[in-house]
Design a protein that fits this description.
Pfam families: DUF599
Strand content: under 5%
Number of helices: 7
Largest sheet: none
Organism: Papaver somniferum (Opium poppy)
Order of helices and strands: HHHHHHH
Structural class: mainly alpha
Number of strands: 0
Keywords: Membrane, Transmembrane, Transmembrane helix
Shape: elongated
InterPro entries: DUF599
Distance between the termini: 65 Å
Protein name: DUF599 domain-containing protein
Length: about 240
Amino acid sequence: MEWRNSYLDLMLVPLGFAATIIYHVYLWHKVRTQPYSTIIGTNAAGRRLWVSSMMKDNDKKNILAVQTLRNAIMGSTLMATTSILLCTGLAAVISSTYSVKKPLNETVYGAHGEFMTALKYVSLLIIFLFAFLCYSLSIRFINQVNFLINSPQDTAGASMVNPQYISELLERGFVLNTVGNRLFYSALPLLLWIFGPILVFLCSMTMIPILYNLDFIMSHSSGTSNEEMNKRRKMEDNL
């Protein structure tokens, strides 16, 4: 009987998350093929230039580099703390003997039995745990950059600790931070799933145009030709 009442959950929840996954696959494709048409690709290029600039004039800009990286670490730390606190709260709700579904029985469309209620909370818990993992790894990589960006370039190991290597570490940290943010965003439809699958679908469909406006550069520069993009990449590699 439980699954007979959950036809809306079986249709709308996977459909909403499938649309979100398709959008992020499209975004990943654009970042790989036309990076300067996206905010992620443009920011990544700017960070590579920033690392080269900081290491080239390190005697004057070492404090600026450390303070900038510290601010990035503080942001990731805040989100990691928020994620683990939410995990703790959800774990307490799941293990509680109080039935949280009783006040919602008459107002929720779709299934709201014992199994579906547990599934909703466990799904939220898993999302926040993976977000915490991504933020923690992001802090690890940015901490490494915090030390290496001020390393002297006139020693024997300078050929290994070069701007390209440090840029790669910094990029990994910011990619993990971005993945953590996207997981955090995906928790909003799951949170609304407590009140029914219709809100999950509506929230997912609403988030896609919002994320599109935040992820893509809406200007004539988004039509940059491949030749200009290749020139920019060569300039970055030469720095």
